[in-house]
Amino acid sequence: MSRSDQPAASSPDSTPTGAFADDLALALRLADAADAVAMQRFDASDLRIDTKPDRTHVTEADLATERAIRQILDTERPADSLLGEEYGTSGDTARRWVIDPIDGTHNYMRGIPVWATLIALTVDGVPQVGVVSQPALGRRWWAATGHGAWTTTTTGETRRIHVSAIDDISASSISFQSIEQWDDVDLLPTLEKLSRAVWRDRGYGDALPYMWLAEGRLELVAEFGVKEYDIAAIAPIVREAGGSFSAFDGSDRLDAESSLATNGVLHDAFLDLLHEDDAR
């Protein structure tokens, strides 16, 4: 997706305003650069793939995309610190950019278009700016504190997004990411109970279901084993769309290795349901 496909900077309704206007504008430019790099190698038959020490995969595109983002930040925000999935942490300041160059690497390396670049700015550990860009699907979402949450559609339309108003768990649609994640934390019985309590459950995976939640298409997304760079960009989009975002224990920590996003009105009800056995 080229910058010309992104009307965010020219649309009067979605033009960044407020305390983080300049940071959001920069984050959108970072996403433009990331899209250009990542799409060059997407679905390439000779894509280079390596294995990290933790046995997860990394592609040449993951590395190149993060380098492109870092180069711009080094110039535009040299005083800020940065956490990236592939190259770690540089600097130690209150303002920190948090980057996942390709969230959904396994999809990327198999030619499945459900992957995204995640770009966030946190201040004193609180996510204030978030951009989720999925160029292979022609979609992008963004938010900044006080600015609302926005998206561009595949036709180039820019519109503000809001979570759903559904207030009954039995009428809700949810995404649980993967059975393996819940099994790894010994919560398969809880997942089964959750799936029986709701109207519909699916394991869509990665950043996309959070964006569907922010658009009002889902009421809950829950995930385990996540790092700060997996969720920092997502939190402000969900919150500015009117939803709630927390760790599985209900805290606001980004380092809890879990995430629970809801439409807000059902957040406490879902937490009560998920922790019902704990209370007993």
Written description of the protein model:
By secondary structure, this protein is an alpha+beta fold. 32% of the residues lie in helices and 26% in strands. It is built from 10 helices and 15 strands. The chain has helices at 21-41, 60-76, 105-109, 179-184, 188-197, 208-214, 228-231, 234-240, 267-274, 276-279, and strands at residues 49-51, 57-59, 81-84, 88-90, 95-103, 116-123, 126-134, 139-144, 148-152, 158-160, 173-175, 200-202, 220-224, 244-246, 258-262. The chain is globular. The termini are far apart. Residues 1-12 have low confidence and may be disordered.
- What is the average per-residue confidence, as pLDDT, rounded to a whole number? 93
- Kindly report the spatial arrangement of strands forming the biggest sheet: 4-3-5-6-7-8-9-10
Overall geometric form = globular
Helical content band: 25-40%
Radius of gyration: 18 Å
Low-confidence stretches: 1-12
Biggest sheet record: 8 strands, mixed
Which sequence of SSEs, written as H and E, runs from N to C? HEEHEEEHEEEEEEHHEHEHHEEHH
Structural class: alpha+beta
If helices are DSSP runs of H or I spanning 4 or more residues, what is the number of helices?
10
The percentage of residues in β strands lies in 25-35%
